[in-house]
Amino acid sequence: MSRQSYEFTSESVSEGHPDKVADRISDEVVDLYFREALKEGMDPWQVRVAAETLTTTNKVVIAGETRGPSSVTPERIEALAREAIKDIGYEQDGFHWKHADVQVLLHPQSVDIAQGVDSGSGLHSEEGAGDQGIMFGYASQDVPGALMPAPVHYSHKILERLAKARKEEGQDWLGPDSKSQVTVRYHNGRPVEATAIVLSTQHLDASLDSRAIAERVKPYIEDVLPMGWLTDNTVYHINPTGKFVIGGPDGDAGLTGRKIIVDTYGGMAPHGGGAFSGKDPTKVDRSAAYATRYLAKNLVAAGVAPWVEIQVSYAIGVAAPTSIYVNVDDNNPIKGDRIETLIRQIMDLTPRGIRKHLDLNKPIYSPTAAYGHFGRTPGDKGEFSWERVDLVDEIKAKL
């Protein structure tokens, strides 16, 4: 952003949103293949998954292409889909984990694609990118620690707080499906207040109206917004259409990969267009987006710039990126071309290099399916490894 004072809005959707139910099931498929490969002694570098999910009224369709251990059967995939739906919280007449019709239509990966991705196959000897495309990474000083844009960060946090209230604190009147939107006012380049909050949450008590819902959820919003950000001037729109009883896939169809702006930076940075969920890390749509976020976050954490935007591009079957571009503020003392040179020195951005550096050949993907892929806390089993800030010392030394 070149302007120093402005308002910016981002949204989030909950784990029970129909698109996010689809994302969760697709990522559970990825995790199952990696989990079984590791269990059976199969080389996890050989796992391939591209799983797409459709959800609608009491119906789930899982399609796509895979390569992995024979122990992953349609029956097991159906069972994990049902467990995911149950964990999200759907036991409603229109969408129920036990009664929904689940169809598994996965088939083996195309040999034409495989020859470009597998090491030693096709026209190039190195393991190539799973597809062409452009990917973006971004980080900013808005939110300490997370280094994420404030509007999308707090949109996620509101819905995470509601999910905790529903699942752990007995607020069973809340349904799994919800959406949030936060408008943040920036002054002198820094976020200072929330000027508008939009929240629509499914509720299982049909007698509740918008006013009653607002009274119940405002304390949770206040829990997660920074002190002083909610003022008498903050505008609230909570369940603005009235009742929201019919929700989830029963209220609207869901598809994998349809919430890519929610998954990334809330529109504060560009998006290359490729979705993440349901894809193994040979697909640079996913792995290179993680790598560029990792680099951008470490650069901001190292004090290189208040915000950093990185673009990389790839050709299918080719290992090395076709380009690396870094964007920082025009007034930043360290310019983008110098940072581009640095990036090439500190990380191998071939698909194999990314997977090795971030240790991505693991069953770590289902937690990414809701509340954003970025700004999360790295886990002790390798989850969100791209959120580590372990390059800071090297960056400082080289600059």
Question: How does this model look, in words?
Answer:
Helices cover 32% and strands 23% of the residues. The chain is built from ten helices and 13 strands. The protein has helices spanning 18-40, 74-88, 111-117, 150-168, 210-224, 260-263, 284-301, 336-346, 351-358, 392-398, and strands at residues 6-13, 48-56, 59-67, 91-92, 95-96, 101-108, 133-140, 174-187, 190-203, 235-238, 254-255, 307-314, 323-327. The chain is flat, with a radius of gyration of 21 Å.
Number of contiguous helices: 10
Gyration radius (Cα, Å) is: 21 Å
Strand order of the largest sheet: 1-8-9-10
Low-confidence stretches: none
Q: Characterize the largest beta sheet: strand count, sense, and whether it forms a barrel.
A: 4 strands, mixed
Q: How far apart, in Å, are the first and last alpha carbons?
A: 24 Å
- H-E string: EHEEHEEEHEHEEHEEHHEEHHH
Mean pLDDT: 94
Tell me the structural class: alpha+beta
Give the overall silhouette. flat
Total strands: the figure is 13
**Estimated helix fraction:** 25-40%
Strand content: 15-25%
